[in-house]
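Final report, closing paragraph on structural work. Over the funding period we assembled a curated collection of sequence-structure pairs, and we close with a single example.
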Amino acid sequence: MLAIGSYAQSWYQVNSNTTQRLKDIVMINATTGFCSGGGDVYNAPEGNGVILKTTDGGENWTTVFSQANLAIYAIHSIANEVYAFAKLNGGDLLLHSADSGVNWSITTISFSPYNVQYANNAIYFLDANDNYALKKWTPTTLAVLMASVGTYGVNNNEIVCINSAFDSIYKSTDGGTTFTQLSGYPTEFGQNQSTNAVIKSFGTTLVVHYTYPAATQVSTDNGISWTHMGYDGANGSAFANYCEIIADNLLLGSFSTTLNSQQDFQAWETDVTLSHTIRKIAIFSGNLGFVLGDNGMIYKTTNVEGLATSDVAVTQPEIRFINHAREDELLIENTSSTPISSITLYDVQGKQVAVLNGNITKINTSHLAKGMYIIYVATSSNSFSEKVFIR
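Its predicted structure, as stored:
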């Protein structure tokens, strides 16, 4: 286990059971998730395209789909069904499973998704076949939100777009129905800095990170004025040639195999060096995070600190689970001031076996088989999962 930077993140490698390059991940709930990969870094044929599944919160993964020369570069879930985008010999494909990964259909699509993001039961992307128009896709609709976009970011109903000329920012607060041009723009951020550039809005705070030279800029007045927060390292080329904006005060990035962090717009810190080149950093609710990369690399953490913002609080409450001496109850000890909202219990296969609402103090386990379970706890300010052995 590796202690990470000032956030005390603890990352550890889990077994993916593949050697393919992994590129994207989605967690449907606390236990069940899917991961996709295959192809080279440009999504050209190389090895097998794979989709992996976990039913134990990402501790172990099994291959549920594999096809030669397929590059599966994005995956997401809508209404508990799984969708993935792939390339085969230059053509674009949509993969779909309605039965949790048992069976998969493959359909040729006319659009070519690039920079795929997810929010509000929809998939957003720039269409490389349509001059990089920003589009919103659901299983029943495909809508054009804005033409000719350079880069963009989605955060719930907030969408920010930079035009292809890289001189204007447009923002929507209604999921892309309407956009307003912001009055300011971060100087230095032009087309030459567009590779792997990211932008995200958190209310009136906007954060952008770009490359060549790599730097972060922030606006706290809804894009009117921008503050340059310095370059990534002495020459602006270290720490984050790939970056994810996690919160309005936290960026996670990679430079080859190093996982790095920037908190409160201070200098970047090298947190840890992983086993292979990093291709994806994904943070989910409840302090759950994954890092994916080459040669089947998956690292996991359940302790992502530093995510606290005005809208998100992630401090894990002091909650313990204790087997009762009678062996038919699981006692819940909550020493924090945060009451429990609900508890959901899953077996190791990912099957939901119990749901309890309210600030409960015990769980009746008399009807459960002896073994390992995963408990998903939700409070008024946080959620997290924990393994427990029921006797």
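Confidence is low (pLDDT under 50) at residues 1-9, 306-317. The chain is about 0% helix and 55% strand. We thank the funder for supporting this effort.
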